[in-house]
Amino acid sequence: MDLKGRRVVAIGEREGVTGPSLKLLAESAGADVVFSVTQCFV
Amino acid sequence: MDLEDQANVNRLAETSGTDDMVVLLGQPDANSAGLFAETVTRGDPTWAGPLAGVPLGLPVYHVLEPEIKEQMDGDLYDEHVGLMELSADVDEIIKWVAVCRD
Amino acid sequence: MNPLGPTPAILHASYVLAHAPDLVRYGSKPVREIGRDPSLLPQVTGSLRPWDEVVAYPPNQVFIGNLVPDDLASIPRPWYENRIDPAGSEGPFGRMVTQPALYGLMKLCDDFDLLAIDGELADQAGADLADFDHRRGRITGVDPAELRAMAEASNGLDLHQDGRRAGFIRTVHDQDESLSASVLLENLVCKATAVLAVSDLLRRARLAAGEIDYLLNCGEEAVGDRYQRGGGSLSKAVGEVVGCVNATGSDVKAFCSAPVHALIAAGAMVAAGVHRYVVVLGGGSQAKLGMKFGAHLRSGVPVMEDCLASMAFLVGPTGADGDGMGLRLDLAGKHPIGAGSSPKAVYEALVVEPLVRAGLRMTDIDRYAVEMHNPEITEPGGSGDVPKTNYRTLAAMAVLRREIERGDMDRFVAERGMPGFAPTQGHIPAGVPYLGHALEAMRHGSLDRAMIVAKGSLFLGRMTQLVDGVSFVVERPGSRPS
């Protein structure tokens, strides 16, 4: 899956990789992050 | 998945289509990653949220998957994912996300 | 450390679990889901555990101190089936109370006639509740007809006991959501459970309530009316019931990390000589009862978020009562705004930086207490084993720092971690449930140093994407190599 030019929905988690982190990473791959969120289960 | 977030993903899919959309996950364990992957592919398995019975069929990948990793900036990846690469059960997470994707 | 001021210590800890099966329906998640599908209510009530099973539940026994966390590690899952027999509701630093006792506590904390209970429940409540002689007269009942009339005449919520309507909490102001029955219920149970934790704390410390100078509440309730929702305070309200006549107080709000913020602040107050004795307290979280009930029902396990939890800690000068553990303010850690939110950045800031500052290694800490959520509650919903994830991350951090080999990660987790045993009650599980155990272990000389690490999900309030975190180290007096 080539992320470049794709619209990415980033669903992160506080104890794993957060939404803002996934956004940075996806953008570094040339993706357009249209939604990012961090889930907290507790 | 949080009900508000399900609604957001659903709205995005409805208003602008799913053609070039990819879901990227960052959960630290396989069960949780699998649950999210299932929600955006076959629909909310808990039947609680807006994606219940809505099989969006979105391509879903975990940030730990090699084909995703290789596209990302290496330094950023080390900083944001390096620790989880070491601590998480990477194979298991990839397996569960792949099950939902395929 | 301030060479002139006292060295602060955590002197005592106190924990309470209040069994609240009939309040589960008023948890945030159950209210919404049952509102949508009323057939869920009998399913929920049918999956709740009786008092005896709640008492005998191994994680609860750890929470009140009758078992140590290492005991729990050797009890096979599911813990709800492998109950402790015999099990007592009193522990060395905590206790469990029945639902009637909880209603009784709410009555004696009710200064505005918010709550009415029937005579039968009042009798039961009084019988189940020792202490509080000066306020026990408030635990009075009304007859069922009067209760019914009250419920018909005003907006509010019915309260139940043994399958019947046994009480009512009223909405104070129909146009003010902050004074609705549901919000007042949240605040009143928080106050009531905190009162018991503080009262028990002072009894165990053999300290007169009048000796307390300052109270710091760290609960997650939002006290106030519509003009200052959440801006109010519970500290003095709790202190008043317990008789802390010489104390004032304020509240520290920082989501789940608030207790650790509050303990650091309390230690600083003691060290600076502003106050001699400070109590940090936090009451139970009504909103989180039954939070994962859907997953529990689907998995065929009991609805286990059935207790309100509360806690209180006494912070004062080291040596004041010959007991306690040193609160190393020089090893306090914080997650600064500019640090970034990657796990690596968070743990560098919270764990590594304070240790490096003091010339210590991660392996110089005997035990870490992180997010101590009971995995049996979180796993059915796909939320994983939160403490285990945290400990694995800490171990990975030690590998990256070349303190341990990669093959030693499991051992690091087993030796320096512990299984989660705290109910999912918001601010309660973040590191601090271990403080009671740490005190006991240090008294016995089996623990020298522990680090308490708490994180908070600031992003939940939609005002920032940031996470938060703070940490401190506690130390057995005299254990520090000179």
Structural description of this entry:
The complex is a heterotrimer of chains A (42), B (102) and C (482). Chain A is built from one helix and two strands, in the order E-H-E. Chain A is α+β, with helices and mostly antiparallel strands and 42 residues long. By secondary structure, chain B is mainly α. Chain B contains five helices and two strands. In chain B, helix 2 (30-41) links the parallel strand 1 (21-25) and strand 2. Chain C is α/β, with parallel strands linked by helices and 482 residues long. Chain C has helices at residues 28-36, 40-46, 51-56, 58-63, 69-73, 99-108, 119-128, 144-153, 181-205, 235-242, 258-271, 293-299, 343-357, 375-378, 386-400, 409-416, 435-443, and strands spanning 8-19, 94-97, 115-117, 156-161, 164-170, 214-217, 248-251, 278-282, 307-317, 325-334, 367-369, 449-456, 468-475. In chain C, strands 1, 2, 6, 7, 8, 9, 10, 11, 12 and 13 form a ten-stranded mixed β-sheet that branches. Chain C has a three-stranded antiparallel β-sheet with strand order 3-5-4, sandwiched between helices. In chain C, strand 6, helix 10 and strand 7 form a beta-alpha-beta unit. Chains B and C meet through helix 2 and helix 4 of B and helix 12, helix 13 and helix 15 of C.
